[in-house]
Amino acid sequence: MAKLDGEALLKRLPQVRGRLEANAPLADLTWFRAGGAAEVLFTPADESDLAAFLKATPKEISVYVIGVGSNLLVRDGGVPGVVIRLGRGFAEVKLEENHRVRVGTAALDVRVARFAQEKSIEALTFLRGIPGTIGGALRMNAGAYGGETRDVLVEARAVDRSGNVHVLSNADMKYSYRHSGAPEDLIFTEALLQGRAGDPAAIAAAMDKITESREATQPIKSRTGGSTFKNPPGNKSWQLIDKAGMRGFAIGPAKVSELHCNFLINEGGATAAQIEELGETVRARVKANSGIDLDWEIKRIGLKPEASP
């Protein structure tokens, strides 16, 4: 298998104030702890650094953006082009008037929920149940425990592939279940969220209930990518998987969780190929058993080893 040539790609990229790293391993940046490297990993200093980089980078070079890797599978062949990971320059959380919270897209969802609770703001409590960042929540209309991103979003700020900055309204995001119709080339940098006045003790209690529920029903302490498949209309994926007899099914160290069978687990040493094969096997069994196609909720990026250049 030929390797991606990050050093050569670096020579074609503009100078930045952030950090550029060739042939950067990505496995430790994902919750699955599996997968290959980024040809180049870019951690921008701030939005202007990101915009300048995108404007100056040749358009034929592929660009991907990742968050904390909580709902991501990086294939073993690695990711050609540039992988952008937003860091501290995009993690600010601050209070605005009328119970609004302005947040950078690298901020963890749980951190935003806790901030809102401390400021006596409710309606953002559901974010406590989402293991990811605000950027991922914006892109996929993330939701849990009765709330969705579209319920609270006022506007989102983003940079396109040409380095232009855009501000999108809630309507511009064209939200549907676990999906945004916003252009794929947009990299979200900031969101303005709308809450409402609440009692901090009651909000804290609701957050504790979410935490207890997740710990009791989901393998959150395992190497997992979170919810694997979207719920088909009128059905729950975990029930379809269970009825297909796939609870606990494994391919090597990649296993369907016995606690919640819409979660795949890396029990130690699983390759991304094994995890993806497991997911596709689950899909095939569910299709054969129920006639229903499951759609991946986990984002998969990069090359399979046999497809590597």
Keywords, separated by commas or semicolons:
alpha+beta, Uridine Diphospho-n-acetylenolpyruvylglucosamine Reductase, domain 2, Uridine Diphospho-n-acetylenolpyruvylglucosamine Reductase, domain 3, Uridine Diphospho-n-acetylenolpyruvylglucosamine Reductase, domain 1, four-stranded mixed β-sheet, 8 helices
Question: What does the model show?
Answer:
Helices cover 26% and strands 28% of the residues. The chain has 309 residues and is α+β, with helices and mostly antiparallel strands. The protein folds into three domains: 6-88, Uridine Diphospho-n-acetylenolpyruvylglucosamine Reductase, domain 2 (2-Layer Sandwich); 90-202, 2-Layer Sandwich (Uridine Diphospho-n-acetylenolpyruvylglucosamine Reductase, domain 3); 220-303, UDP-N-acetylenolpyruvoylglucosamine reductase, C-terminal domain (Uridine Diphospho-n-acetylenolpyruvylglucosamine Reductase, domain 1, Alpha-Beta Complex), CATH 3.90.78.10. A five-stranded antiparallel beta sheet has the order 6-7-15-11-12. Strands 1-2-5-3 form a four-stranded mixed beta sheet. The N and C termini lie close together (8 Å).
